Amino acid sequence: MREFSVSRRQVAVIAGLIVLALFLGGHSLVRGGASAAPERPSTGAGVVREASPRLVVHVVGAVRRPGLYRVESNSRISDAVRRAGGPTRRADLALINLAAPLADGAQILVPRRVPIPVVGRAMESPGPGVAGGPVRLNTATLADLDSLPGVGPVTAQKILDYRQKHGAFSSVDDLDSISGIGPARLEQLRDLVAP
Fold it and tell me: Domain 126-194: which CATH class?
């Protein structure tokens, strides 16, 4: 076998190269690990968070441009309504929580304002004369007549008594013959009753 001889100088050069290679390799590993950390921030629990995707939501109801919209993942309902052109004049924003966070695939319904009836004569319950047509004087029951505005149970009974005594009503004007129904009350009932 052939002997291989190495001088001390060669051993020192080889050892120096190995140390230099280890130093450079370690340095690049440490530096590479430090640069990767800012790209993938972690939460306090050690869970790595990816960049959050955009959400797709469906905005309908009282908005200017209903439809599907892409919004940032940390968006609120107000952001989606704004993306849909904003609320219309008839929107009732008090019925939705504009600060609520959005979820992917959510539908946001912006409700329309319901008109509030005027308090007064319009609020009086006209009974069957409005809902199911005029009250028929010749076939109405005591309850039907009592439900008319300004006609109580006593006047309703007088109408029934008149019908029984005099026969069928031929006209709404026949109500003028009943005590308790004057010209003003007759005008009030004219559109609510029929013979």
Answer: mainly alpha
